[in-house]
Write a structure and sequence with these properties.
The complex is a heterodimer of chains A (127) and B (142). In chain A, 16% of the residues lie in helices and 35% in strands. Chain A has one helix and nine strands, in the order αβββββββββ. The N and C termini of chain A lie far apart (70 Å). Residues 1-25 of chain A have low confidence and may be disordered. In chain B, α2 (38-55) packs antiparallel against α4 (65-86). Chain B is elongated. The model of chain B has no long low-confidence stretch (mean pLDDT 88). The chains are: A alpha+beta (127), B mainly alpha (142).
Chain lengths: 127, 142
Amino acid sequence: MKRLATTLALVALAAVLAACSGTSAAPTPAPSTDPDALKISSKDLAFSTDTLVAPAGKAFQIVYDNQESAPHNVAIYADQGYSQKVLVEEPFSGPKVVTYSVPALDAGTYYFRCDLHTNMKGTIEVK
Amino acid sequence: MANRPASRSFTAVDAVIRVAIVALVLGTAYIHSTLGGLLFTLNAAGYVVAAIAMIAPIALASRFRWVVRAGLIGYALTTIVGWAIQGPYYSTAYLAKAIEVALIALVAVDFVRFDGNPISVVRRELATGMAFLRARRAGAAA
């Protein structure tokens, strides 16, 4: 019985680990990066900046460099309560660089955060 | 203690269920351990402790395995509710929640197979506790 239990345990564990080790669908990198793209990175569960500045009325890109294995995203919201989504894509594990394409926004203050680690946050000033 | 159901032999089906429970617990613990941050790490650690408690071949763990089962169901439910409130809602999270739902179902099956009706278990344990207290009082009075 012990041998059976051990064998089953190993098979089940292998199946679970195999299922867990697959990478989740992450945002597809943009084919070309705008030289004026905003840049942000993260390491040790912190963003490199808490303020980004973007042009009003014009689509722009954000190049996000996640430098650690913990999955993060840069999710953009129109309100401080993080309920009005502007751009929310799946968190992804690093090290990996992803370019987000943000649609044109009206002038104002927008809010970004990592949806997994909500203490990682900042604002985007659109003007 | 006298009211406890007679011990039953551990069958192959029991072994499969127990192994599946441990695999599911370790699976969701692994996912949470990869997310970084204190909250997720503590959640993963809690699951690992629960996995150990589910199979620990020590008398105390065996005697109170029903508490471990009930605790594990509550822990997984709390994790699911916490996620439902806060999110985020993405593929890895859905996988972890699917594992936890399956885990709750299997632990519930394990509970019923070994302990029977949960209400009866609570009644039995309360009766055991009351009998213990009465015996202590009687001993102190003598």
